[in-house]
Amino acid sequence: MVSKRERFYVDIPAGLEDWVANRLVGAHFRILNALILGHLLNAAMIFAVFYGSVPTGQLGMWSTGMIALCIHRYMIGQGQHRKAGRKNPAKLIAALEFNTVGLALFAVIALAWFFPGATALRQIFLTIVATTLIAAAGYTMRTLPRAALAYITIITSGMIWGLLKTGSLQALAGSILLGASGMLLGRMALVAHKLFVVRILRERELHTSSETVRMLLNDFEDHGSDWLFELNDTGMMMHVSERFASALHSVPEDLNGRSFVDLFEKSPEQDQLRDHLGQRRAFRGLALQLQQKSSSDRSWWSVSARPAHNGSISTVQFRGVISDISAEKQAEARVRYMAHYDSLTGLPNRMMFTTALHRMFSERQDDVRLVLMLIDVDHFKAVNDMYGHPVGDAFLKHVGERIATCAKDSQLGGEAHLVARLGGDEFALLMGGEDVVDHAIRLAARLVDDMAQPFIVNGHEINSGVSIGVAIAPDHGQSAQLLQSNADIALYYAKDSGRKRWEMFEPGMDVAVQKRHAIERDLRSALGNDELRLYFQPLVNVETGDTTGYEALARWQHPVRGLVMPNDFIPIAEETGLIVPMGEWIIRTAMAEAASWHDPKTIAVNLSPVQLRSPNLLPTVISALAESQIDPARFEIEITESVLMNDCEANIAILNRLHDLGIKIALDDFGTGYASLNYLLTFPFDKIKIDRSFVTDLESREDCRAIVGAVIGLANKLGMCTLAEGVEHEAQLEQLRSEGCSMVQGWLFGKAMPAEHYAERRTDKIAPPVVKPAKP
What we know:
- The chain is of the alpha/beta class.
- The protein is built from 29 helices and 22 strands.
């Protein structure tokens, strides 16, 4: 039994046999009317040519049969036959093949029957008819290969039989040619059938692929994050989708036919887009900004496209895809902003300031001057310590706003201002112009006055101020680095001169800065070179007049500068961290000295906030106590309120551990800081030291007497000892005695002197231990 696949003379994928059969039959039905009309025309012509030479009855019967077969074939292609064939195409093909054999037999009857007795002209006519029929069959029946082969074989065989029946040599030659033509036409019909089947299979594959692609594109268009677009050869949008139109806040009807390029803002990228479209060049990842209706709506698209491969002016010429990269662009803008602007104040940062300074130098004309102001907030650390970092940050934000407002309000025509935050509490103001110097002087003075006004920050009233250093180019520097360095020197002078002021750079100021750097350099080797000394000042009991102890004070015996006082090197030591090894040396040396005294007097040392944060503080104190063998109750540590304001909980924990060892803790410079009464409740101090600033004016100022009296009364009620500093006159001593002060210290009882000055305090038998200073 012949399979369906074999019947089509070409490999058909499994499951597609019926679909292919229906396509073959359908193709045949499209030319069915032409085939029927051709046979009816041939029948009519044969009837007319042979009418009278062939019995009319025979001719009529033949014509009637041919007409009946044509009607039958027509009926096959209509109505129930076609509907049934869709479900069973093999049955429909069989009906068509049966009808084809009938048509061929009736045609060959006329050709073979009428041919032998016909005249030469009629024989030629019949030969033409036969040739026409087998040639037409190769085309009209190419989708039905068995029908085509049967039709060609039957007609060719019948015509050859008729020719051979004449017995002529010419008929024999014609038979040979006719047979060869029939075989060739049969072969052509099979090839045409195969090509047709291959074509429809490929069409199905393309259709399936197109459907898959269309489905994916539709899904992409509906649910994807990108959009597809199509343009004609003039760059106008075509087939705009709802989703694409929605992204543009429009509808497809309004966008179809609009210029794609005009969707975007004018820019070099827009020019590139127009050039790519005009020259039909593919492009990828072109970042374009959409035209905006408002400045707040800034959308960016990344566009990629390539030419479509068709040529009609009415069809698509470009296809592409669009991605919304607004988030990426906003992120890039944010990164650029963060790289050039301060996140707290919104002002330009150090990088942008430095770039602007170099640019202004490079673009400066001969008649233009540049003014640089470096602005430092006075006592900002105290604000941070007192109110905390959140308030400190808010305060800096207010400072930046006030500086920027002041600079803007006082700006003169022609001058350019740049206000920047360099970091921490450091700000800078840069301006340039022909008359900028006078303007800068007035602005510096106004800044000092305005910044001295109170700030209201988160409900707190903060009184601060600024110190300003001013340098002018080219007078004070012909390079950005030199100008900034000289402005910094002027700022140092402003702070060193009492703050809340401005200073213009002058030649010679740098000498003081160099001196400070030299002190810092020499201080690093002071410990190793055994240049530090301890001086001792007596602490006296007010009631008995006896010396109960000494305060150890550091001095620096410089080989060139001589004796350097603490105010000149302790701040530098704290800034550089040298105070830590220096403080360890002071603790050990002070305890060793106290161990040599024949009386159990106390020894007090000052403790820096930097020392308190050192992890070596507690081990150093314990080690020094063990080495010196003195009673811990003889050792006193004096701290200022700033120790408690910074890392309060951690510092109090350390102080408690020291207190647990038996060491006494004194609060120094009481009344000069912030919220002192609160600190008396925070930690159980053994002693309160009244600052010399209150004692100095004790005789002349009633307010000082009131403050001293209040402090002494409060301390006595809390069970704390009070010690007044800076007592120089008997009247001061009597006033303090009348107020109930416990102890005093000052020049009235002795200045700070080397240990040798108090040699009578030592035992004759015990020499003070030698303490080798640790290297920093």
